[in-house]
């Protein structure tokens, strides 16, 4: 039977939350641009014809009009929403792996690639279902 070290799972869960927060910080400005383009459309942003110019022009305009702080609007709610997101993923994944090892694991408590993929898909579905209201706000 597979034994799960709860302190290790807690540590991994904390690392997942930290990496999610760091990733959200790095791509936060791109989410702001994406949301504004969805709301206001392309006509609000002049295009010079070069590849990627919409993003660069949007970044320049946001820095000019709102300052550097404008690039990270909505970052706090995103980071707050990531906490339960990664908690659900880590808990579901660990439980799915324990259950899968009992059902299809080999004698060494190792899961097959397919069983790992099913556990990950289940974790993604559970996370989307449980945390969807947080992302809709």
UniProtKB/TrEMBL annotation:
Keywords: Membrane, Repeat, Transmembrane, Transmembrane helix, Transport. Its main location: membrane. It is found in: Membrane. InterPro entries: MCP_dom_sf, MCP_transmembrane, SLC25A32-like. GO terms for cellular component: membrane. It is a multi-pass membrane protein. GO terms for biological process: nucleotide transport; transmembrane transport. Solcar repeats lie at residues 5-99. Belongs to the mitochondrial carrier (TC 2.A.29) family. This is Uncharacterized protein. It comes from Hevea brasiliensis (Para rubber tree).
């Amino acid at each position: 039977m597979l034994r799960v070290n709860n302190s290790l799972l807690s540590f991994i869960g904390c690392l997942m939350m930290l990496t999610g927060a760091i990733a959200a910080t790095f791509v936060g400005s791109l989410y702001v641009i994406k949301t504004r383009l969805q709301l206001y459309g392309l006509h609000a942003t002049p295009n010079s014809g070069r590849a990627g110019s919409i993003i660069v022009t949007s970044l320049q305009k946001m820095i000019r009009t709102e300052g550097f702080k404008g690039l990270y609007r909505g970052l706090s709610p995103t980071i707050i929403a990531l906490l339960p997101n990664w908690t659900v993923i880590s808990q579901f994944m660990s439980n799915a792996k324990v259950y899968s090892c009992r059902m299809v694991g080999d004698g060494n408590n190792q899961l097959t690639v397919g069983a790992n993929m099913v556990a990950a898909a289940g974790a993604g579905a559970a996370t989307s279902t449980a945390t969807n209201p947080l992302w809709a706000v």
